[in-house]
Amino acid sequence: MCGRVIVDYDENMDVAKGTELASWLEQRPEGYQATWNLKPTQPLPVAFTDHKNGTHRFEYAYWSLVPIWSKELKTKFPTFNARSETAAEKASFKASVKNRRCIIPVTGFYEWTGPKTQRTPHAIFGPAPIIPMAGLYSWWHEPDAGDDEGWHLTATILTRASAGVMEPLHDRMPVFMSDELLGDWLDPDTVGDQLLMGAVSDASLPISEQLREYAVKPLRGDGPELILPA
């Protein structure tokens, strides 16, 4: 699973230049603030294609996907992660799999090990300064709002069975977005199905083999000190 991420673009945005990812991350999302302890239901930066005009968008979303048919901006069960193996079949996610796919560019994330009474967080980083995670998004509309107002962008991070350095930490890990499938994934004209989900999941394995991790102190508050080795 993935329930805590790091978003620190200040020195990393320029590093992405010259890559396919760079065209989606030309500027920071409006209201950007670096965070080393971003949690579900907080604003999560996502990049996606605007259905109306095909432009690239990079902005904040509510981190927990809320389907359009929900009566309120929350769900009865956690939706900050979606299993890549079953998302195309699940009522909450299948419409987003079809043509509302996004990437979540983070600079790192956390996972925990140890007994419940003494959990140890591990900071995890990728082979490049920015790790694009595969995700899904949905627009949720306030029931009593007008057609042009009351819209909320919501999103979830896809997960798959762990591999590489993640295996000892947890049985699930994020699906990392490969460069070769990035264009198709973000193209709403590419109809998403379980085959696409499987291809993106499989293509993420080489990235997982290049991850690095180390233990950090318990996460309290926010700040760059959270990623210092314990």
UniProtKB/TrEMBL annotation:
Protein name listed in UniProt: Abasic site processing protein
PANTHER family on file: ABASIC SITE PROCESSING PROTEIN HMCES, DC12-RELATED
Keyword Hydrolase: yes
An individual GO BP term: protein-DNA covalent cross-linking repair
Keyword vocabulary terms for this entry: Covalent protein-DNA linkage, DNA damage, DNA-binding, Hydrolase, Lyase, Protease
Family (UniProt): Belongs to the SOS response-associated peptidase family.
Classification via InterPro entries: SRAP, SRAP-like
Coiled-coil regions, chain positions: none
EC number in record: 3.4.-.-
Source species of the chain: Leucobacter luti
Annotated signal sequence range: none
GO MF assignments: lyase activity; peptidase activity; single-stranded DNA binding
Domain of life, per lineage: Bacteria
Main EC class the enzyme belongs to: hydrolase
